[in-house]
Amino acid sequence: MAALKYPASAWTRHRSLPEKDGDERNPAEIDRSRILHSAAFRRLAGKTQIFGLGQDAFFRSRLTHSLEVAQIAKGIALRVGADVEVCEAAALAHDIGHPPFGHHGETVLADKMNGHGGFEANAQNFRILCEIEVKYQDEPGLNLTRTVLDALLKYRVPFGAHPRKFYYTDDPRLRNVVEWAMQGFPNKSFECQIMDWADDIAYSCHDLEDGLHAGMISRQRLMSYGAEIIAAAQANLADCTDEDFAGVLAIVTECEAGGDVQRVQAARKSRISLVINELLQVGRKRRIHPAGTSGVPVRHQWDLEVAPELRRRCEMLKSAAFVLLVNDPRVASLEARAEIVLPALLDQYRAAKAAPLYPEPYRTRFRQQTLDDDRARVACDFIAGMTDDYAERVYSRIFSGTRSALADY
User: Fold this and answer.
1) Residue-range domains of the chain with CATH
2) Residue whose C-alpha is closest to residue 338's, from 384, 400, 402
3) pLDDT digit string, tens, across residues 13-57
4) CA angle at residue 98 from 97 to 104, to 5 degrees?
5) Distance CA 152, CA 195 (A)
6) Residue 51: which region, alpha, beta or left (left: phi > 0; alpha: psi -120 to 50)?
7) 330-387 pLDDT, tens per residue?
8) By the number of CB atoms within 10 A of the CB, which of 4, 76, 77, 151 ranks highest?
9) Which residues have a Cβ under 8 Å from the Cβ of 102 and sit 6 or more positions away?
10) CB within 8 A of 192, min separation 6: which ones?
11) How many whole angstroms separate alpha carbon 45 and alpha carbon 53?
12) Which of 183, 197, 195, 176 is nearest to 298 (CA)?
């Protein structure tokens, strides 16, 4: 399908800063490269997706998940005529704000930061890209284009307007960038919808594959927890039915096709690939503003339309993975570690005399703060950027005196 035409105004950057001469890449390709080469992106290799890292090389990390989301987003973009590089860039960056210890880590930091401006992983993505990552000597952030930043804004209400899904408002400079990227449009951009659907596809299908490999998802266990899985799906998407559950049961049954190990692995990979392809192929764009509507950017003239039955299937897959994996000791132990390590670190690093604990440039940032909320934000930024292992090492160094290596800093 022919790609949408984006005007030059779509590629403006928030700051007018000198760029390299002779760069033949388009602005979205440049943004994708800046994200790909960022320190925050590399650290995703050390952050948990579902199962704790180091237990089995098969399981996905945040990095491999993000790469898979980017591939799926590219496929959707090609099908519906969106800008491929914008969708890939947003997909690559969509999880860089996630803290250590998976979703449990996000919940812990959100609870601890509730009275200090909040914590939300999508909001943290934006903060990292615009304020924390380093590219220029005298300006913060990667200075990405408006269209790419808008594609990353899943939650478009300020902190306080929703208990868990928001953008930060405690930094006026960052809030200014958010509002500049949104241009007053309350709904997700076309490219953001593509990134979000690609994430749902990857999350549902690849968590299923990891769960099958771990032995935690099987036809037998699905049958045993069927009522709980259906209830979990309906809590998020009320239209989910027993028939949708039966569809997931059929998928898992095919993934367990008999034979030797290679045949079982091939059946699993083939069936999950077909599910991804099916979920990917059904998307299409739907115009929501007439062509040429004054003041409406191209990225807000279209919606991504996905068949209701496919959204239900995706939701049922996610719910099956959630219900069947949440009781796995490898997952439960990660939750326990998040509840022990992260609150202790946050309290320690936001204390008034904590500056010597920080490496630069966080030490300088912390010393510039006099208010508890601002110190808490610096501590949260530092801790959210940690990998699982680094958080464990720092915790052990401070609280137990073990694993004490100067290389930790």
Assistant:
1) 26-182 (1.10.3210.10), 190-329 (no CATH), 331-408 (no CATH)
2) 384
3) 998 887 777 788 999 999 999 999 999 999 999 988 766 555 555
4) 155
5) 8
6) beta
7) 677 778 889 999 999 999 999 999 999 999 999 999 999 999 999 999 999 999 999 9
8) 151
9) 47, 48, 49, 50, 334, 338
10) 90, 150, 151, 152, 153, 154
11) 9
12) 183
Buried b (16+ CB within 10 A) or exposed e, 43-74: bbebbbbbbbbeeeeebbbbbebbbbbbebbb
Residue matched to tokens 């960038």: 177
Torsion of CA 160, 164, 168, 170, to 10 degrees: 50
- Quick one: which of 151, 144, 88 has its CA closest to 122? 151
DSSP 164: S
- What residues contact residue 5 under an 8 Å CB cut-off, 6+ apart? 298
- Entry field: residues in the chain: 409
Structural contact between residues 279 and 248, judged by C-beta atoms closer than 8 angstroms: no
Could you tell me if 91 and 195 are in contact, meaning their C-beta atoms sit under 8 angstroms apart? yes
Strand 284-287 and strand 302-305: pairing?
antiparallel
pLDDT at residue 264, rounded to an integer:
77
φ, ψ at 305 (rounded to 5°): -105, 125
